[in-house]
Amino acid sequence: MGATKEFLHNEIEEEQRKAISDTRDYPVLFSTDMVRAILSGSKTVTRRLFLPSLSIVMEPAHQIWHDGGEWIARMKNGKCYKKPIVCPFGEPGDYLWVKETWAPAIDDIAYRADYSEEVLAEKRNQGLWKPSIHMQKTQSRLWLQITDIKAQRIQTITEEEAREEGIQPGKIYWFDKTNESNFREGFLIKWFSIYGIENYYENPWVWAIKFNVAESKPSKII
After folding, report:
1. 74, burial (CB in 10 Å: exposed 0-12, middle 13-18, buried 19+)
2. What's the CA gap between 184 and 172, in Å, rounded?
3. What are the percentages of helix, strand and coil residues in the chain, rounded to 5?
């Protein structure tokens, strides 16, 4: 193995080690509209890009699957990738704690997703909200238990999979010849707004993470 490739593999292993937490709970950011979708029950899955270094190495991968013990990647030349592959968001049974836009309140915490856009637009409510990235675990109200994880190319998302993302139907008129709004194109509109159209055409690998909303914060985290 060449020095450059060896260095890249070492970088991947180090990045993945940092992503593994022995507490078995992982923070995940959601926008206000996606928090509302989770609360309504319409969002039961989220898709997240592979870590950058793993994405580079997995670019030539034809298939990635979990065999019940570990993740396996088959490359386009038919060979299997022999280094460890780790999903940085955990595995089925683990928990994700949601980081959302919030504000301190008297003896409590206010969550932006609980208020209508009309109320949020009022002048007295301007400048109160803190970015989701600053939310601490003790302030999180939403805990999601992972039920399934799969790896897929973003372009392979189906209509049903997009519906489970809690996205409203949408239409990209240059995308295909149909004129009907659909969940898949609604999802892609959201994806383009976050990652750009170029990212879609690069067709990156993503983790598709299914979850259930926990009724309460887990009493024990390993």
Report:
1. middle
2. 10
3. 35, 25, 40
For 168-188, the pLDDT digits (tens) are: 999 998 877 778 899 999 999
Rounded to whole angstroms, what are the CA distances from 149 to 39, 48, 58, 60, 68? 21, 11, 17, 21, 11
Helices H / strands E in the chain, number of each: 7, 9
Element (H, E) at 194: helix 183-195
Which pLDDT score, from 0 to 100, does residue 87 have?
Answer: 94
> What's the CA angle centered on 16, arms 13 and 18, to 5 degrees?
110
pLDDT at 215: 87
Tokens linked to 126:
């301007």
C-alpha–C-alpha distance, residues 13 and 67, integer Å = 20
Neighbours of 147 (CB within 10 A): 13
Return the pLDDT at 221.
Answer: 60
Cα–Cα distance for residue pair 218/142, rounded to 1 Å: 11
* Both structure tokens of 146: 């992972």
Is residue 57 within 8 A of residue 180, CB to CB? The reply is no
Taking the CA atoms of residue 33, residue 34, residue 39 and residue 44 in that order, the dihedral angle to the nearest 10 degrees is 150
Dihedral (C-alpha) 5, 7, 11, 12: value to the nearest 10 degrees? 20
Single-letter amino acid, residue 153: R
CA 123, 125, 128, 132 dihedral sign is negative
Pairwise CA distance, residues 73 & 76, whole Å: 10
